Amino acid sequence: MPRWRPNVTVAAVIERDGRFMLVEEHTAQGLRLNTPAGHLDPGETPAEGCAREALEETAHHFVPTALVGVYIARFQRPPSSGEERRDSEEDVTYLRFAFAGTLGAFEPDRALDEGIVRTLWMTPDEIRASVDRHRSPLLLQCIEDHLAGQRHPLDLIHTDASVHAPPKA
């Protein structure tokens, strides 16, 4: 029996003047909204992954300053149009680390990740009113927790040195 592994993702909760930066992206389910987010890559801490994903999806530098929360969600994903036909949907679990932080410099010539159409700034009420377009069921919860002032120190997440330099076998 294969070992169960959740998909670890990182998300940037970026707020400015009462609005939150979201990305609009093409998905198998159509155009969806999300916070700048993506999968954690090998050899990086969750905060480093969050900064990388924010840059790749928004062309803005982002410096995580606090952990908003750790979230988990499970859903059934239908096969994409280009995938082999499967008799059942794929059971997917995401473990998300969401960070608040400082939005930095914009790189206007930087290409956005494949599938990202644009960034946009939305109010909390606009985000609440667009739940049917959210890519992740965790998007709104991260925004609500941020609005509630939920912040945890970055050192809540301990990263062993082996993440950056795995021990030799």
TrEMBL record:
It comes from the Bacteria. It is an enzyme of class 3 (hydrolase). Gene3D superfamilies: Nucleoside Triphosphate Pyrophosphohydrolase. Its EC number is 3.6.1.-. Residues 3-144 form the Nudix hydrolase domain. Keywords: Hydrolase, Magnesium. PROSITE patterns: NUDIX. CDD domains: NUDIX_Hydrolase. GO terms for molecular function: nucleoside diphosphate phosphatase activity; ribonucleoside triphosphate phosphatase activity; thiamine diphosphate phosphatase activity. PANTHER family: NUDIX HYDROLASE 23 (PTHR43222), PHOSPHATASE NUDJ (PTHR43222:SF11). Belongs to the Nudix hydrolase family. NudJ subfamily. Monomer. This is Phosphatase NudJ. It comes from Variovorax guangxiensis. The gene is nudJ.
